[in-house]
Amino acid sequence: MTTILQTTRFSPEADAVPAEVDDSTVADKRSIEELASYLGVRFQDLSLLRAGLTHPSYANEHPEDPTGDYERLEFLGDSVLGMIVARTLYQWFPGAPEGRLTEWRSHLVCGPTLSRVARSLSLGDWLRLGRGEEQTGGRGREGNLERVYEAVVGALYLDQGLDETRSFVLRTLESEFDALEDGPDALNPKGALQELVQRLAQELADSSTDRTTDEPMNGRPEYVLLSESGPDHAREFEVEVLIDGESLGQGGGASKQQAEKEAAAQALAVLRTRLKQIGSGRGQQVAEREGGVPGVPPTT
Question: Which residues are catalytic?
Fold first, then answer.
């Protein structure tokens, strides 16, 4: 798929700075210039970037440090980010209704999205944390990652202005904007799966003479937690989704919601493949071999 962004592609994997985290913060061991270069941005006042990396816990433990913490920059960055995203959506999607634009903006600036982007930029490795926050996994905590990304945006806006900040935001959110072109499934696979199952259930109910069983199709996917592991600050969840009692997908993630989304995306792919095969004239053999689409009888 051709990207909708006409900017240089950003590849954190190719340029990633290897993590070397120990008792002292990485941001204090490496030059801030190195981070700015890695992020592909310029700063005239590097103290702004340093402040954007400073967690309140570090500032509390180091009152002699004049840098301060990132909270004010986060406040500013949140507003700047929202404006850039809203303006970009308005310009790129002239035919999209207000409700769709609002949905897309909410997805692009939400905590899980921003923390995922911050993680891809290795921003957690550069956080300046207090000892307690460091020891409890604060470097990888979703809330901290979301805030540090917004703070960096705020710092860049103060130092370089709107154009440079917009370039940084669009470059680092590129894959998230690309997902908008993939349709609503990429943003809300659980909702897409729910709609598909409900539609199938309704179609089968309306065509009761085609049913091979008197049991109605359940119109709701069921999500089952398979496992939960890891320390409190780094939990891992594994979930499966059942439709009419059949497991059609499994997913994992740092939250139950993320794991459910992955499972739903997998189930969507399975369901649509089966429906396509049934519609192609090979349905009976495929349905029998694969157990059939839940609630969908094989063709005759």
Answer: 78, 150
